[in-house]
């Protein structure tokens, strides 16, 4: 895994499909850790993907600590609560692996897509060559959004490996 110095992320207010304004900002592990754990502890297990997020509080803690140590994250915040989490972890090929979760109460409102657009822009400015992600082949809503944003399926097996080239 590559060591990367991530540039700062400019916080933005985005509007979801209902017109609600939601703050998307850089995750601060020291300040936001408990709020992020809270989001995942209250995450409906039916919305999990590829075994994530972990089911137990200790599993969530270990997972987000790993992500904070090895990657860069943004969060969506509404009324002081974290409702979305997107993290990128660099690899040794100047690409990043992306993981995103939006709390079930805020899904299907375009928030995940807005967060994805912001991180794609961020990754381009940071000089990464591409973004990879993996999703379940049955996650048709997410696959639709990823394709809409330019991702292509590069390995259509048990799950779908998808890739977005940033070299254009």
TrEMBL record:
UniProtKB keywords = Acyltransferase, Transferase
InterPro entries, per the entry: Acyl_CoA_acyltransferase, GNAT_dom
Please list the GO terms describing molecular function. acyltransferase activity, transferring groups other than amino-acyl groups
Question: Which parts of the sequence belong to the N-acetyltransferase domain?
Answer: 22-168
List the Gene3D superfamilies.
3.40.630.30
Record-given protein name: GNAT family N-acetyltransferase
Organism listed in the record: Archaeoglobus fulgidus
